[in-house]
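User: quick one - fold this with magnesium ion bound?
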Amino acid sequence: MSAQQIMIHFGELSTKGKNRRVFVDTLAGNIRHRLNKLRVKMRVTHDHIYLYGEELQSTQIIETLQDISGIHAISIVEKVATDTETLIKTARRIINFQDGQTFKVICHRKDKSYPLISDQINRLIAKEILENTSWTVDVHNPDFALKITIDRDAAYFITRTYPGLGGYPLGTMGRTLHMMSGGIDSPVAAYLLIRRGLNVEMLHFASPPYTQAAVIDKLKELLTILTRYQKSIKLHIVPFTELQLAIYQHAPEGYPITIMRRMMYRIATAYANRHKIKVLSTGECLGQVASQTIESLNVINAVCNLPVIRPLATFDKLNIIDIAKRIGTFTTSIAPYDDCCTIFAPKNPKTKPRIKEVEAIEKLWDYELQIETCLQNIETITIDDMPFANDYL
Ligand code: ATP
Ligand code: MG
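Assistant: Sure. Structure tokens for the protein plus magnesium ion:
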């Protein structure tokens, strides 16, 4: 008797010590949440999560699992009895389904009371295959590696392995307030943050009527795509028009963008502090535009008392575009739209703004009152995922 199961391999959990349990339990919860419409049973062990059950349609589930952060790899395994006769029979059957000429057996004996050690099992099975098939052994670069885990209750043969998303289970790193525009970069940055285990909440600065309502539809579309990786995403929309007009009224040529970004950071920081979010994030990329030089980032960052994660800081645009295409945000991102940055963009933004000058300009009006008005009038909408799991029913 053998039964197909799915074996989920964890990523970088080996360094997590006592927190390991929290990571594994969170991952198990996330998987359950994702597969909620599928009747799949789950067993959580120290090293793996197993999915099984009579209705297990492994090929259908793999795709969903590949969108869940904290999964390093996903294997289809066959669960069989541990007696040597069964091990040999199963090995023969599995190798018959593989393409290639060279193989290697890799046994991992978790049950240390098993009468044979791993190397003896490797040899026993390899001998059988060599004597009965045309396959030959190549220990360095085999066409097929036959992997077996011997556990207390059963032996697991890995028949196929798919790459996972990597990173950490969503939520294990807390929450970030992510500054989200409708461009290419910020959705890609959000994806990388989610993959690393951070729940993202989006903050968007809108300047109607200068920016159109269509921008919000575009954001909703982008966020719907990202719900593949985080089931539910909050979008906080800041009415930014009045503050932005005041900036352009008071700031001399070259300075509006720097000051506008300081205002964005002030609002983001205040919102995060009030809602117990401990980190901010953006799609900023070193050197990409005037506001993203080290000098500009210094002046902008000076108003913020939270760490800011900039996942794309060192990425080339082409790499960012590659990821945007892979995760499906690119086409939506390139649709033309007017961002508050593009509409008001001055001709010669300063690449090396001086903080003293910036502070002097900001003294010209009571921006703090306007910031408070922005904060009081934030509108929040929640974007929920498309019913991926339902598709499989
Ligand atoms: P993107 O492609 O993400 O729009 P960009 O290359 O256009 O980035 P900027 O417009 O300078 O660069 O913006 C840098 C970052 O600032 C964005 O990645 C985003 O995190 C944030 N940002 C810009 N505009 C807005 C906005 N209207 N609302 C919220 N965040 C914004
Ligand atoms: Mg932008």
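One thing worth noting: Confidence is low (pLDDT under 50) at residues 388-393.
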